[in-house]
Write a structure and sequence with these properties.
There is one protein chain. The chain is an alpha+beta fold. Helix content is about 15%, strand content about 25%. The chain is built from 1 helix and 4 strands. It has one helix at about 20-30, and strands spanning about 5, 15, 30-35, 40-45. A 4-stranded mixed sheet has the order 2-1-4-3, covered by helices on one side. The longest helix has 10 residues, at about 20-30. The protein starts with a strand and ends in a 28-residue tail after the last strand.
Length: about 70
């Protein structure tokens, strides 16, 4: 499922939302399209968010392949 990035009134990122909810917020005037240099569709809320809580960010590092295989053919 695709998610839409959300920016709060002050410009800080919030948790992404579903496209259907983003369309509903745009139609009701609770949000506007947020322009950015990456051409990523995102919305910015024009009203205060119900909660300012965000989930903690967890980063996983994938070292990839630790060895190379040489094929002699």
């Amino acid at each position: 499922m695709q998610r839409v990035p959300v920016i709060n009134k002050e410009g800080y990122p919030l948790m992404p939302t579903k496209p259907s909810r983003a369309r509903r917020w745009l139609k009701s005037g609770k949000a506007v399209i947020w322009k950015n240099k990456l051409n990523v569709f995102a919305i910015q809320l024009t009203v205060d968010a119900a909660k300012g809580d965000t989930q903690p960010l967890v980063v996983g590092i994938d070292p990839g392949k630790l060895y190379t295989v040489r094929f002699v053919g």
